[in-house]
Amino acid sequence: MGKIIAIANQKGGVGKTTTAVNVAASMAATKRKVLLIDLDPQGNATMGSGVDKYNVDNTCYELLIEEKPIDEVIIKETSGKYHLIAGNSDITAAEIKLMEVFAREVRLRNALAPVKNYYDYIFIDCPPSLNQLTVNAMAAADSVLVPMQCEYYALEGLTALMDTIKKLASVVNPQLKIEGVLRTMYDPRNRLANDVSEQLKRHFGDQVYRTVIPRNVRLAEAPSFGTPAMYYDKSSTGAKAYLALAGEILRRGKANQVAK
Ligand code: ADP
Ligand code: MG
Predict the structure, then answer these.
(1) How confident is the model at residue 155, as a pLDDT?
(2) Which of 8, 124, 132, 242 is a good FRET partner for 41, with 20 to 30 A between their CA atoms?
């Protein structure tokens, strides 16, 4: 059965979009069927997938507000070999219009139902705020992957975020799990980063991925070529780290199945 993972952190610039694009591409490279949903009006995941956000017929707006059939909204050609539902500034209007519609929290969940079992993994790149779009992502997802930077106050922010996710889940999706906490833009030479990383492991234990995403310029450059890092420089530490993350997500998924 397909798994829906929301990539969320209300802080901007922590590596949500970079993670969404690169983990989707890495998962697709392991021959899994993958759908990436760009729920951010900035449309960075769309551009990073080699799709021009200014020149798309359909986005999450058509899916959520016009209730167009999902097959018509999915873009099948991307540089990362996954399928995409695009995002651009139209989604800002969707966020406002969602306030007026019936069953507004579960629009995305309902829209995804027909394709959930076709895909092995569906990743949702969330906007950097806790708005109605993020609520839709949390309501649709099986689990949440939280990217974070190991910097001062990160732990406080993370604890607050986890509380928010729990509260939200109790209303819209009591089954929602924490998929994992991902350390991003990691610099092992930075003592503070090491300290925060240790605290994080003490606090969140197994929920912290063993895979660490290093700070790597290739990850920052690849989007300007409209491609995930593995198709820009496959030997880069960034591309390799996201492949390792995909492997870890797959292993955890299998372990959980056995546990059940
Ligand atoms: P978010 O989606 O959380 O706002 P992004 O993924 O857009 O964050 O990342 C913010 C910025 O940091 C972008 O310019 C991105 O290219 C860069 N970046 C993200 N992860 C890394 C990394 N591991 N190494 C270097 N630059 C990174
Ligand atoms: Mg982003």
Answers:
(1) 86
(2) 242
- Domain count for the chain: 1
Q: Record the pTM.
A: 0.97
45 closest CA partner among 79, 23, 63, 18: 18
Residue listed under structure tokens 């009006």:
41
Q: Kindly report the length of the chain.
A: 260
CA of 22 to the centre of ligand 1 (A): 11
Helix/strand/coil for 81: coil
CA 68 centroid distance within chain: 23
| CA–CA separation, 10 and 75 (whole Å) | 27
Give me the domain span that covers residue 242.
Answer: 3-259
ipTM over 0.90: yes
Tell me the pLDDT band of 259, cut-offs 50, 70 and 90: low
- 11-22 in b/e form (b: 16+ CB < 10 A) is beebbbbbbbbb
The CATH number given to whatever domain includes residue 250 is: 3.40.50.300
Instruction: Decide: 42 in ligand 1 pocket, CB within 6 A.
Output: no
With vertex at residue 157, the alpha carbon angle to CA 152 and CA 158, rounded to the nearest 5 degrees, is 110
Cα separation, 258 vs 260, in Å, equals: 5
* Ligand 1 contact, 17 CB (< 6 A): yes
